[in-house]
Amino acid sequence: MNYHQYYPIDVINGPGTRCTLFVAGCEHQCPGCYNKSTWRLDSGIAFTPQMEAQIIADLNDQRIPRQGLSLSGGDPLHPANVPAILQLVTRVRAECTGKDIWLWTGYKLEDLDNAQMEIVNQINVLIDGKFVQALKDPALIWRGSSNQVVHQLR
Fold first, then answer.
1. Do 104 and 72 form a contact (C-beta atoms < 8 A)?
2. Each residue of 93-104: pLDDT tens digit?
3. Tell me, which fold does domain 2-152 have in CATH?
4. Positions of E strands within 39-143
């Protein structure tokens, strides 16, 4: 898996102070997407074990308490990203007590395959659905267009 950006301190992509990872790779390529640079799987930087360890360390750093981890992109549930994302969320669940996990995807919850659902079963909030330019609404919280759904899972 590749990623484009990692923010160890973020107050925009989910509630509270968070760590946010923007991964590479998106099959949806929605017109009007604000993050087109993340569409190609081979773009960005390789996601290494060192970066994974840094995220875990940042989540556990009490000098700047963080509420949780946000995963966006690109698309964290792109089939090529699933193994690395599953490993990351599994580690967060095991090693970061009390942290929530939010994930944005262009896939719909009801269309996810078993591998993608392994990830969803470990997260707290899923925001699903493609961005639709005609349904864009800047007043929405945590989503760009009104067709997207915020699923509170845990």
1. yes
2. 999 999 999 999
3. TIM Barrel (3.20.20)
4. 45-46, 68-73, 100-104, 125-128
